[in-house]
Amino acid sequence: MRVKTGVLGSTGYTGAELLRLIVNHGNVDLKWITSEKFAGKNISSVFPNLRGFIDLECSTVKDLDKLEGVDIVFSCLPHTTSMHFAKKFLDIGKRIIDLSADFRFNNINTYKDIYRIKHRYPELCEVSVYGLPELFRKQISKAQLVANPGCFATSALLGILPLLNREIISETVCVDSKAGISGGGRAPSLNSHFSEANEAISLNSITGHPQKYEVQEKVFEKFSRRIKIIFSAFNINASRGILTTIKSRLKHKTSKTDMLNAYNNFYQGEPFVRIYDDEKYISTKNVRYSNYCDIGINIQDDHIICVTALDNLGKGASAQAVQNMNIMFGLDEKTCLMNMSIYP
Amino acid sequence: MRVKTGVLGSTGYTGAELLRLIVNHGNVDLKWITSEKFAGKNISSVFPNLRGFIDLECSTVKDLDKLEGVDIVFSCLPHTTSMHFAKKFLDIGKRIIDLSADFRFNNINTYKDIYRIKHRYPELCEVSVYGLPELFRKQISKAQLVANPGCFATSALLGILPLLNREIISETVCVDSKAGISGGGRAPSLNSHFSEANEAISLNSITGHPQKYEVQEKVFEKFSRRIKIIFSAFNINASRGILTTIKSRLKHKTSKTDMLNAYNNFYQGEPFVRIYDDEKYISTKNVRYSNYCDIGINIQDDHIICVTALDNLGKGASAQAVQNMNIMFGLDEKTCLMNMSIYP
Amino acid sequence: MRVKTGVLGSTGYTGAELLRLIVNHGNVDLKWITSEKFAGKNISSVFPNLRGFIDLECSTVKDLDKLEGVDIVFSCLPHTTSMHFAKKFLDIGKRIIDLSADFRFNNINTYKDIYRIKHRYPELCEVSVYGLPELFRKQISKAQLVANPGCFATSALLGILPLLNREIISETVCVDSKAGISGGGRAPSLNSHFSEANEAISLNSITGHPQKYEVQEKVFEKFSRRIKIIFSAFNINASRGILTTIKSRLKHKTSKTDMLNAYNNFYQGEPFVRIYDDEKYISTKNVRYSNYCDIGINIQDDHIICVTALDNLGKGASAQAVQNMNIMFGLDEKTCLMNMSIYP
Amino acid sequence: MRVKTGVLGSTGYTGAELLRLIVNHGNVDLKWITSEKFAGKNISSVFPNLRGFIDLECSTVKDLDKLEGVDIVFSCLPHTTSMHFAKKFLDIGKRIIDLSADFRFNNINTYKDIYRIKHRYPELCEVSVYGLPELFRKQISKAQLVANPGCFATSALLGILPLLNREIISETVCVDSKAGISGGGRAPSLNSHFSEANEAISLNSITGHPQKYEVQEKVFEKFSRRIKIIFSAFNINASRGILTTIKSRLKHKTSKTDMLNAYNNFYQGEPFVRIYDDEKYISTKNVRYSNYCDIGINIQDDHIICVTALDNLGKGASAQAVQNMNIMFGLDEKTCLMNMSIYP
Predict the structure, then answer these.
(1) Chains that contact D by 3+ CB pairs under 8 Å?
(2) If you classify domain A3-149+315-328 with CATH, what class do you get?
(3) pLDDT tens per residue across span B291-342
(4) A57 to chain B nearest CA, in Å?
(5) Where are the domains of chain C?
(6) Contact pairs from chain A to chain B, CB under 8 Å
(7) What is the pTM of this model?
(8) B·C CB contacts under 8 A
(9) D3-148+315-328 belongs to which CATH class?
């Protein structure tokens, strides 16, 4: 089977990773890519690692009318912009995987509170499917519009979900995420300047990152349970990776073994979630460049502590987007995603 | 005034930082240094940055009988070893600042639980003073034996203390610390290998780091309050720095302004604790090489989130040790410590 | 076709990279691996990235008699040790790719001068083939024993070779190499300690690195020309990568275009050498994790300056070893090696 | 003695380093600073490490008429801009240290060739003094206008100078410099983006960096000797530091000891040039944050190889500027510059 695809906004970091994966995907034909900044340039001059692998010129969204002949479009455009192009492609019957935040919230009031802009397509928010296969695989398979989850949200949700099945934890969950610099995007800024970011752990947000609400909404949607995420996010001087700590009070005394069982059961059969008996292996080093989310846990006093590690551009963005595409088109879900992390 | 000093175990990272500071301390005469590994070698061949600044050969602790003529000894020896040498120098009337964990616990049962070894000198544990000037300045000034706090404990305590004065927070405090690699010491190991540690955030401990108990004991000692620290610690690929997140449920609704006031009041007049109105400035970059602890806070839902940043070898170890020495000898507490962080 | 293989000394960095590549090699069956340090342990506990990909216990060379059933053995053992095991496997008719320096020199006097040890198997040095496919492809295809080139030597040779065909350059060639830390191996040492290596460019050797002689010998072997390499090597704080500058006086005035033609002609059809018209793209970032060697050139005054970039564990070691294996067994030379570098 | 000073263009990296040094200079009163980008903002909001040390608002060059009351002005403005402001301050009798390239060339044709712009003040180029104290100390002491040397040029010149006294080397000198990212300035760009620059050694220039001509002119000016620098420059992923390799053919057989003597003699009494008997200590790690230039040498075949290390913002820019100021005002040349590098 061949899937014909196009990528909107291909020259940021999620685009770079997406193209890298698509190159090796035996079932995908990449028809076009767009970039406003590098319009007219060959993608291999933008990302030299693609030289010899992809030979395509960047189109611009102004040429949208010519951008046809695809089965699915990945949008790596920024939020508030992405929604308009998603709309256009949906209107002509294409399927969309949107890597921005534009369709992650079914509740458009939450969206408005966060992004200070009224959502233009509330009807699409209602039908969009949240692209976390571990939670919504069946819905994804039939979706026209998949909202690819945020990297922080993915790292938090995959750690929290097994705890929500039963009444294991209290409603307050402390989440602390540390993320590599690529999470801030490719546009140059003082924060991403090497000499500023290097040798530094710095504050991203402690007042309530947008993805806090993403987690809370999806938990409620799936488990009808309102949890309160106390979310803090930090930047660390690595190119890639998110490591997230999740802490919550256990309602009943329980053992590490019990909890490991809960995690293993919850993720039974999942190809990209790895539960470790020994949490010492949890490191972003072991997941970078991959679609894996590694999880380790332990008990401390009356709290469970869960640590998840993933690649913010992998399971946290582009690799998960490819996983979603595989599901949507009935391909083997693992196609082109069985990459191990690379070491050292 | 002149303070004659010696340094035990001078060739690790806390030793390196201590020597760097002492070089520029106008009132200190460095009489001797020891190193078992580099005995007989000039310290400037061990730490090339000291070339031209210190011209001393490393003695060994075997020469202890000759190591006299000092007013105070800094011990940078590892815990369980350090206690014996502290004892010897105390017995001949010298003052000691011990940078190991050996005298941080007044409760020797806690020490035994953590280090799986019975403390040999319980009587010294009783008289030792915990060298956090912001908490025990008066006692430090008269102490014979000062137990220099751990770097994690310092970063947690300085964030928690202002919350304990009144009944502001609940008894559970979630603490998440991210620390640079130098915290693991200078002895080569696989964990500290550049190619292993680089581009990685990895797990240090989620089951209860020793310094969790240090924090709990000191809080109880000072405030007669038993708090429960849920402590997680991670390694990140920076040479220096600890950034610690502290979260606790507020018992009553309160504002950021109120909380800032509480912090500013608590640390009024403290030369090395800086409270930031805008927490976005909190970064290990702004404190490295210095004795500062930077603190930012905000409120999220019903929780206070406090973020502290310090240099694990600065306020977290050697600079704080010098601060303690200054206090012990009636010197201006800031002598040789008014170093700003260096940027970029 | 299936190639059954074993790996000696699999738990260093060249071993890690070799295993990663072999996992994805459709024609290779990995029968056994050895490690003296991790004997009896599962390789996935040594290299967590292999979890789920290779499930093998490390044997030891003491079990050598049982280590049969293979067509080819890769030796990642250290030089002076490796030769003995190569001998043993050759004696029972196995083919060997030796990643150590033990069989790189046909001239055993050079070997002795460098390693201060008399080579025990001069007869093998005579028949060993130097595993640089761009130079000795035909010989490699029939070789029993392939000496895999050094990473510095590969980076220098690939830059110099096109200049030797004709009388383009003078006999003196200044070579300056900067290499990532993984080149120093996985054994922990002070030099490879993160806090020592980080934020540092430091001297490796300016007196004549062993691989200087490797380059000189191979140039003479192939072109009957004695060139004089003035070789300097430095360590930089990256996990991987070698970037090498090559400078030599041009005997006749020539243009960049002429020289680009010379390089393009020399490497015509070579799958893993990429010549760039615009040298600004040369960066270790564009070759890491790959088997590519990127080359850019320009003219400055009367000198040619050539810059080569490769991954010291890729084209500089393990990927090149796999390339050699592919050639030896008549497989498509590119099998499992068409990996692009990963970015960011 | 008090020196009243102002800093033009204070919010780049040379400005940051200059301010850091001035803070600790007992004889300098900082009267004003300018920044077009951060005009009106307090400098401590631009460089958080200055909080508590400097409390000044950034003026703009539009306020130039009010920027009086100083004895000397440091200009950290970019080249082609800086010259105009230097002119203005010189016209009202102020002394200037210009950290840009605008007055480094006495030969305005060279300037024009490099910067593609005709110099507006050739008469100033004639009287400006090149601020390398090891070469022009006497002239600096009386200069009105000092052109602070480039960081690459400083690292090359300090290595080459001792070889020019006598007829030691041939006229061709191969120079290879590797520099940290801060050398590219603080303005955000794709090249300085953390995720682009990290884990990379990349090409800066192999066609003739402007500072190549700076070196050649100064050598000619001092030694009446035309040497040919074959210059290559690379970026490496460190915040600070330049390490430069210098190679030249020795005209006569000579020993390392002889050459060490030549270097030691040449730099006798120089406070900031350190010659090492053992070149293995040469590392940017040992000079960062300092005004030192460390030099190691050895002989390989018929070539001398000299390696120099300095901090591009220290001896390569701002610290050297302060050294020049000390000389100009008859202060102890070492004032506020006796900082060792910081380690780890």
Answers:
(1) A, B, C
(2) alpha beta
(3) 999 999 999 999 999 999 999 999 999 999 999 999 999 999 999 999 999 9
(4) 32
(5) 3-148+315-328, 152-312
(6) 158
(7) 0.97
(8) 58
(9) alpha beta
